[in-house]
Amino acid sequence: MSVRTYIQSRLGSRKILLMTHVIVGYPSLDVNWRMLERMEQADVDLVELQMPFSEPIADGPVFARANQEALKKGLSTDQYFDFMARATERFGFPHVMMGYYNTVFRLTHRTFCERLRAAGGAGFIVPDLPIEEYHDLFPLSESHGLTPVALFTPTNTDARLVEIGRHGRGFVYGVARRGVTGKRTDLKAGIDALAARYRAATDVPLALGFGIAGGDDVRQLHGSCEIAIVGSALLEHWENGGEEEYRSFLEELQKARF
């Protein structure tokens, strides 16, 4: 089943889908596995597995620190793909690789697609790669059954959004505000207008992320997009309150989809 077909099928039973986020290797691979188990229990719809990178330019302080810690502990590309392969075999939700282009470049486009497909990945998000620089990554993605997820940002002109939207596959990741991940987004401050701009530029499902911090935020997005993305807030709950607080927060997000 394609990512887009999967999204449409899940929307038949809820008002919005939930995509969550794990930085592979932080706090540890064992903890990552427990996070995924809790996500499964909360029936999340999609999961981003982030490949740690030394200069994660789209990530705020929480994720930037987590990336550095994962790398300090020696998380390798091989370990990342091994973890994804175990996760996709065990858990039913689609797993989307999130990472930065230097990793893709060093592997080469073909090898990256081959390894991601072999690990069971559904697609990838590479926020620092402009669509003009994808080159053969688009046809290679298609031939390997992978969904390349394009990004919309508030600073894009309408013409630029249309150009990016032409390359939308599966869904498009709409950045909910300027800046980096982590800082809470005031969803009452023009989010409907921003989502409308994004929607006008593509016909694939729209996801919104950056600063989505709780159930009320997810409910605020009902009718504005198909997918709410929650990342930094989840990690903060694990760090502040451990597994039980993490579980409780996931339940809050789960209920907010209906």
CATH architecture descriptor text: Alpha-Beta Barrel
Number of domains: 1
Question: What share of the residues lie within helices?
Answer: 40-55%
Mean pLDDT: 93
Annotation, overall tally of beta strands: 9
Provide the CATH superfamily: Aldolase class I
- The CATH top-level class label: Alpha Beta
**What is Rg?**
17 Å
Shape: globular
* Contiguous helical run count: 11
The poorly predicted ranges are none
Short description:
By secondary structure, the chain is α/β, with parallel strands linked by helices. It has 11 helices and 9 strands. It has a 9-stranded parallel β-sheet with strand order 5-4-3-2-1-9-8-7-6.
Comma- or semicolon-separated keywords:
globular, alpha/beta, TIM Barrel, 258 residues, nine-stranded parallel sheet
Characterise this structure:
This protein has helices at residues 3-10, 29-41, 61-72, 77-90, 101-107, 109-118, 137-143, 158-165, 191-199, 215-220, 232-255; strands spanning 17-23, 46-50, 95-98, 123-125, 147-148, 151-152, 172-175, 206-209, 227-230. With 258 residues, the protein is an alpha/beta fold. It has a single domain (3-255), classed as TIM Barrel. Strands 5-4-3-2-1-9-8-7-6 form a nine-stranded parallel sheet. The longest helix has 24 residues, at 232-255. The radius of gyration is 17 Å and the shape is globular. The mean pLDDT is 93.
